[in-house]
Amino acid sequence: MKLVRESLNEMNFERRKDPFGALGIGQEQLIKDWLDEMGVDDYTINDDYTIDVNENINISRRNLKKFPDYIQFDIISGYFLCHENYLVSLKGCPRIVKGKFWCNSNNLVSLDGCPKSVWYFDCSNNKTQFTEEYVRDMCQVFNDVWI
Asked: So what's the pLDDT on residue 16?
């Protein structure tokens, strides 16, 4: 009778960093489950567990206070809407959004964790009223900023 460790070592895992992924548990499965719950379909989980999405993401009005620690978006091909939640942090938000980024109507006091590049940026109606200068210092915005 083989030990569990021996059986795991013989399995051909797609990701050596997350050997439990092949068993339907582990970090990759947590990411997939959360994305499914949020209705995100067309995505790729990269080797570093960041997430690229080839569609728009609308996770607004989901009563989110923060993104789970295992969620880190990277490149979003469309827009990324996370407005009208209770977010206190943007940690986990995408690095690049090729459309609009709306984080308005949350409980934000800082834009730490916001994307580095977006087309439009809306951060109005948060605990802190941000200035356009602050937003543009935090993020390369190619078009309008709503504060």
From this structure: 47
